[in-house]
Design brief:
It is built from 13 helices and eleven strands. With 361 residues, it is α/β, with parallel strands linked by helices.
């Protein structure tokens, strides 16, 4: 790949353009917003001048509702040898392109499973896709050339290619992405008019649950409007679970011992189902998540604290597999949870204690 045209200079498009440009690909940028193009170009993502000849790859990174129209326009104008899109929904654009009677041999729908709460070119980073799944949805019409271009793009972005059917993809993202976002928003919405005394009690758990609720609503309206059926199906199943859980909790209020017992069993069942589902979430080392233990360290909100902890752990020969920060409300301090292999806990605890760190056991 020597040249590319990135249409849509938001978070995903600009991040991909930054990667391509850094690898020596001549990248041309286009967007309906000239200011977004200028911003992306100023970041080093490419040039705002249009290509003078067909490029190797056209990457369409626009909202789902505009994908088919943008692709059709680019294909009819012969702007590239191969065409990809990165929309979070795949079935709708494919059906619309087929309805237009276009030759789909040069097209491949894709979806990088990565993102941030922020959007726009200023939120773009070249390592956005590293280690993340990048779904490819080839069809019987897909040509070898565009498939190779897609695999090259995924490799340059250091992502992990995953091949799926377009409709299966849409059902999958409804479960693992679109529904969780709505659930996060529903939980966060309960806080909007809550009493201040209640909000001040927020801890790390509700921060984790509501983190993605900070995303741009207009972007998510576009996404959900393109995949409403599968998302509604999953939410309907969640609604059934919620109804059963509400009934179980009400039973716990009963004076009848049998009802309380059934209520407790119902609550326990949903919690255990949650345990069973959570362990299936892929971990750092692949599909099978590994079990780590946590060493919690009290730190002050000062520059260099995290660097010191990691350096002390490194000198002890301990690899930190993951890290979480639990902020103390209203205080300039918090706990850093260092996730390590179980066998490394005694070594790390001893080493950090010797360096004067305050540990929480």
């Amino acid at each position: 790949m020597r040249s590319a045209l990135v249409i849509g200079t938001g978070l995903i498009g600009t991040s991909a353009a930054l990667v391509l440009a850094s690898r020596g690909v001549r990248v041309h940028l286009a967007d309906h917003d000239p200011e977004a193009v200028r911003t992306a170009a100023s970041l080093g993502a490419g040039t705002d001048t249009p290509p003078e000849a067909p490029v190797d790859l056209a990457l369409v990174a626009v909202p789902p509702a505009r994908v088919a129209g943008t692709l059709a326009d680019a294909m009819e104008r012969g702007l590239a040898r191969g065409y990809l899109d990165v929309a979070s929904v795949k079935g709708g654009p494919l059906r619309e392109l087929r309805a237009r009677g276009l030759d789909l041999s040069a097209y491949l729908g894709t979806h990088p499973m990565s993102g941030r709460e922020r959007s726009g070119p200023l939120a773009a980073v070249p390592d956005l896709f590293e280690g993340r799944p990048w779904v490819l949805t080839p069809t019987p019409e897909t040509g070898t050339e565009v498939l190779n271009l897609a695999l090259e793009l995924v490799a340059l972005c250091r992502a992990v290619p995953v091949v799926m059917d377009a409709e299966a993809h849409d059902r999958a993202v409804a479960l693992v992405s679109h529904m969780p976002h709505l659930m996060s928003s529903l939980v966060a919405a309960r806080l909007a008019e809550a009493e201040e005394a209640a909000v001040r009690l927020c801890g790390q758990g509700i921060r984790d649950v509501t983190r993605i609720a900070a995303s741009e609503p207009r972007m998510w309206i576009d996404i959900l409007s393109a995949n409403p059926g599968p998302v509604a199906d999953v939410l309907a199943e969640v609604a059934e679970d919620l109804g059963e859980t509400v009934a179980a909790l009400r039973a716990l209020q009963s004076c009848d011992e049998d009802k309380r017992t059934r209520g407790g069993s119902g609550v326990e069942a949903v919690l255990r189902r949650g345990n069973a589902g959570q362990v299936r979430v892929p971990g750092k080392h692949g599909a099978a998540p590994r079990t780590y233990e946590s060493v919690s360290v009290l730190i002050d909100d000062q520059p260099g604290q995290l660097a010191r902890i990691f350096a002390d752990a490194g000198r002890a020969g301990v690899n930190v597999e993951d890290v979480r920060i639990e902020h103390a409300t209203g205080q300039q301090a918090g706990f850093v949870q260092l996730m390590v292999e179980p066998g490394a806990v005694p070594v790390l605890t001893r080493a950090l204690g010797e360096q004067g760190w305050a540990l929480r056991t």
